């Protein structure tokens, strides 16, 4: 009988115990694979979201970049504005490939949220906005008829929600204005799908914000010039520059504490699983003391006994690892939904990416875990003296 | 913080729409736990079913619904794959009512019309979950929405095909939004027809055959 067959036979003697041990490893490995998949998926999705914005730098009015949004969400009119002259000063910089001014405005809509009230936000843009997003196409209609037209462009989902098509009217609460839908964009898979856009000048006029902006998006010709460009803009009074790399770093920092905690929990789960494996195999060794003594008495070497017990551990770990990988794949959607609920910012796209390389690494890791966990039980079994073992087993 | 980051990323308007946009195709309750408790204070639970016309009969069913609606579906927003949400309200194991909503194209934006009905399909409560209009207050006013309490699909058939009955007696509460009033009546009729088709097994068919021209 080959060693592997002997090992499997031994494991099948106590099926429930073996199954529970395999399940313990599967859960631990599954959690670890999901977390590693999340690491990769989240970063990729975040990068994709940032790339889809089309610009590398965002110029905003001075202040904490989060402060304006926080004030705004509390219901205050806390948005910070900068003078449009800033845009006029930097637009001619030779290092700039594309640049777009933006004006975001909020209005309190008392009828939002079933009459409980809430904020609605609108974005004023000019044609340069679409130059930064060449992947954006019209589903119907087109650009505004004039730079100060009383018109809106709707993202795909915004149009679906409002059931608007080109030519329909849309009511802007708070300012009690009625605008006409000039166009609807195709789905882009980005947050733009839910946005209501207006001509920049229309937003400026509608909200008495003449020559004011909330942001300027910039894409440089050469990304290597980004730091020099940022340095030059520090001389501009009243503004600050946020690079998208910083934004990515900030978001990653926000999720890093959660990542550290979940990784720690996953590693503890793996550790508990390893202890479980050692315990299971050790129990099995103790139960077979007499049998091991007989085997040795019949000529089995220490190495033979060591290999059989070691193999049992490895088989349990490999099965657990494979099941864990499968579990992680099957639970991807569930984990993704849980992450989206828990995290402060969840980018669009697949947040959990489980690649074949990750699964192979997980399986290799569990084999290594099995090799390590099996050493002591295998050593105990192999070092048993035949006569003592047979006597103990009687 | 999520929202703050959105602003930073230049995606602020997503706040205005993204949350709701996920529910754009069908019409789910904003907060089913809260809404159902408000509509049925004695409820102990509820079950949610999403049903499409495609699942229950496809194009022939769509044609039948349009005939009973006496109007054609909007080819963009009223497709056969729209998942309509039906909340079966429970008190213990007993069903005590239903809550169901539809999206309806309005004058200035999408309307979300929610109905709470009893087991026979009689309206217990009606409200606008979403409405954009300069005259929204007039439509949301209880003196208007209360008029629909006690009505059934039969009353809407009477209004559609004979221009009589309690629905015909309901007056447009607005001054300049007749289109929204008409959209409300159409949306409610559609809501009740879908409910009749999917849940009640065409219970009001006999009345429909009686009143249709």
UniProtKB/TrEMBL annotation, chain A:
MF GO annotations: transmembrane transporter activity
Name by which UniProt lists this protein: ABC transporter permease
Subcellular localization, as worded in the UniProt entry: Cell membrane
Domain ABC3 transporter permease C-terminal: 265-384
Organism: Eiseniibacteriota bacterium
Domain MacB-like periplasmic core: 18-233
Family assignment from sequence similarity: Belongs to the ABC-4 integral membrane protein family.
Record key words, sorted: Cell membrane, Membrane, Transmembrane, Transmembrane helix
Principal subcellular localisation of the protein: membrane
GO cellular component terms, A-Z: plasma membrane
Membrane-spanning parts: 264-286, 307-331, 351-376
Membrane topology qualifier: Multi-pass membrane protein
Automatic annotation (TrEMBL), chain B:
UniProt signal peptide: 1-23
Keywords noted in UniProt: Signal
Protein name: TPM domain-containing protein
Species the sequence originates in: Eiseniibacteriota bacterium
Lineage, uppermost ranks: Bacteria, Candidatus Eiseniibacteriota
């Amino acid at each position: 009988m080959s060693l592997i067959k002997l090992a499997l036979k031994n494991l099948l003697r106590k099926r429930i115990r073996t199954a529970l041990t395999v399940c313990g490893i599967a859960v631990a490995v599954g959690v670890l694979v999901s977390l590693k998949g999340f690491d990769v998926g989240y970063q990729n999705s975040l990068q994709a979201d940032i790339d889809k914005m089309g610009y590398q730098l965002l110029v905003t009015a001075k202040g904490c970049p989060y402060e304006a949004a926080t004030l705004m969400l509390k219901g205050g009119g806390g948005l910070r504005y900068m003078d449009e002259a800033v845009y006029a000063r930097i637009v001619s910089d030779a290092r700039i490939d594309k640049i777009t001014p933006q004006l975001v405005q909020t209005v309190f809509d008392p009828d939002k949220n079933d009459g409980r009230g809430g904020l609605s936000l609108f974005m004023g843009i000019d044609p340069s906005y679409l130059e930064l997003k060449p992947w954006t196409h019209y589903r119907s209609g087109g650009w505004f008829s004039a730079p100060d037209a009383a018109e809106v462009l709707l993202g795909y989902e915004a149009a679906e929600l409002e059931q608007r098509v080109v030519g329909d009217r849309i009511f802007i609460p708070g300012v009690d204005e009625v605008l006409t839908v000039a166009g609807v964009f195709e789905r882009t898979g980005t947050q733009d799908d839910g946005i209501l856009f207006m001509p920049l000048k229309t937003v400026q006029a509608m909200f008495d914000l003449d020559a004011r902006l909330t942001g300027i998006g910039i894409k440089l010709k050469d990304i290597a010039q980004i730091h020099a460009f940022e340095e030059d803009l520090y001389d501009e009074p009243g503004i600050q520059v946020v690079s998208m790399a910083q934004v990515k770093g900030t978001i990653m920092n926000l999720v890093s504490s959660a990542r550290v905690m979940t990784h720690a929990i996953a590693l503890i789960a793996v550790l508990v699983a390893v202890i479980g494996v050692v315990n299971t195999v050790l129990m099995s060794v103790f139960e077979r003391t007499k049998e091991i003594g007989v085997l040795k008495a019949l000529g089995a070497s220490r190495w033979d006994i060591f290999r059989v017990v070691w193999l049992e551990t490895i088989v349990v770990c490999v099965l657990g690892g494979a099941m864990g990988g499968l579990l992680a794949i099957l639970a991807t959607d569930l984990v993704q939904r849980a992450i989206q609920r828990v995290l402060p910012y969840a980018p669009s796209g697949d947040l959990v990416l489980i690649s074949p390389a990750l699964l192979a690494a997980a399986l290799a890791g569990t084999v290594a875990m099995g090799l390590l966990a099996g050493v002591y039980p295998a050593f105990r079994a192999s070092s048993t003296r035949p006569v003592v073992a047979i006597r103990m087993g009687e | 913080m999520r929202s703050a980051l959105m602003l930073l990323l230049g995606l602020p308007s997503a706040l205005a729409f993204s949350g709701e946009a996920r529910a754009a195709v069908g019409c789910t309750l904003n907060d089913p736990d809260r809404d159902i408790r408000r509509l049925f204070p004695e409820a102990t639970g509820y079950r949610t079913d999403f049903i499409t016309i495609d699942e229950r009969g496809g194009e022939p069913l769509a044609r039948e619904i349009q005939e009973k609606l006496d109007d054609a579906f909007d080819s963009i927003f009223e497709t056969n794959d729209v998942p309509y949400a039906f909340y079966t309200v429970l008190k213990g194991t007993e069903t005590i009512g239903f809550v169901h909503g539809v999206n309806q194209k309005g004058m200035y934006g999408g309307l979300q019309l929610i109905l709470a009905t009893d087991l026979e399909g009689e309206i217990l409560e009606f409200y606008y979950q979403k409405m954009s209009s300069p005259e929204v207050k007039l439509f949301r006013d209880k003196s208007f929405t209360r008029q629909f309490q006690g009505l059934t699909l039969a009353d809407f058939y009477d209004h559609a095909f004979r221009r009589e009955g309690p629905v015909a007696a309901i007056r447009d509460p607005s001054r300049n939004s007749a289109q929204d009033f008409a959209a409300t009546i159409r949306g409610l009729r559609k809501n009740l027809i879908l409910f009749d088709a999917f849940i009640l097994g065409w219970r009001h068919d006999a009345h429909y055959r009686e009143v249709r021209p």
